[in-house]
Amino acid sequence: xxxxxxxxxxxxxxxxxxxxxxxxxxxxxxxxxxxxxxxxxxxxxxxxxxxxxxxxxxxxxxxxxxxxxxxxxxxxxxxxxxxxxxxxxxxxxxxxxxxxxxxxxxxxxxxxxxxxxxxxxxxxxxxxxxxxxxxxxxxxxxxxxxxxxxxxxxxxxxxxxxxxxxxxxxxxxxxxxxxxxxxxxxxxxxxxxxxxxxxxxxxxxxxxxxxxxxxxxxxxxxxxxxxxxxxxxxxxxxxxxxxxxxxxxxxxxxxxxxxxxxxxxxxxxxxxxxxxxxxxxxxxxxxxxxxxxxxxxxxxxxxxxxxxxxxxxxxxxxxxxxxxxxxxxxxxxxxxxxxxxxxxxxxxxxxxxxxxxxxxxxxxxxxxxxxxxxxxxxxxxxxxxxxxxxxxxxxxxxx
Length: 399
What we know:
By secondary structure, the protein is of the alpha+beta class. The chain is built from 16 helices and seven strands. 49% of the residues lie in helices and 10% in strands. A five-stranded mixed sheet has the order 1-2-3-4-5, with helices on one face. Strands 6-7 form a two-stranded antiparallel ribbon.
């Protein structure tokens, strides 16, 4: 759409509709002023001038936050040399590059790969060519809803990255102090807790199978047994070295949430002591579980499929569900969410709560306790003990 020249009013600016390509409405009254309308619907005030013979456009603000009258006054002040309120509009693509240099480079390799994937596949296609001060809440919501239809969890993660980027841009003085982040306050998609947990009989069968295989020298079975006893992540156990195994804890040098200690219960301590006794290289910087030339995770997964079948466990049960089982059984044993969250190394207690499955017998026992508590308030125990003697007899006796 070609640039149009007219005497601008607030009503005309409000009625300007986005087209397939961006266009500008030039003001007849203030020749250097124009309203640029982008396909996203964002509208920005710009002044045009020439520097060293080349045309230069500078952004004054956005419509409707800045009306026509205020935009004309700002344009006059700008052309007169008062350029303090004016900020160069930074393209989102440039912000992405700066954000990675100043923030994302501190992420772990796996986290950095995930971050770059979201930026490359989701954020840049949606906002790459837009100046950051023109990204509206409507733009963000429309993108988030489209993405959320196919990947609710991915949309949540990408929205968090976008919000962090825009907040950083404001902190780095790329946006005015009173600017409102359009990615803040959007309701996240509900995440369905996936996976399941093992019942006590299933735990017993699995423990028996793993103990037999681990005793005959299968490192993958040892990994699975360690997962079951500690609640650690697979990567944490696979990278574990003997120097990290202390008498009462595992001192993880690195994990998803950074270095942390994992306290060990009696069973876990007994397992590592027995495993160390059977290994000639169980010292120093040697890894606890060694697989030779094999890819450790692939080997563990192969053994897991065999163990799962031998222990007669559900075919949908995943290795990571061993961690979920640790959570559930800890809570059913009376441990608080806060305590279990610290054991697992979760940053947020809500993450732990998502995997706090409870067995039916635990729920029934809880319901029984609550019912008796209420009954004690409504009907005292002394009265309930007297009731059988006052009830009508059955059989051949007189009433």
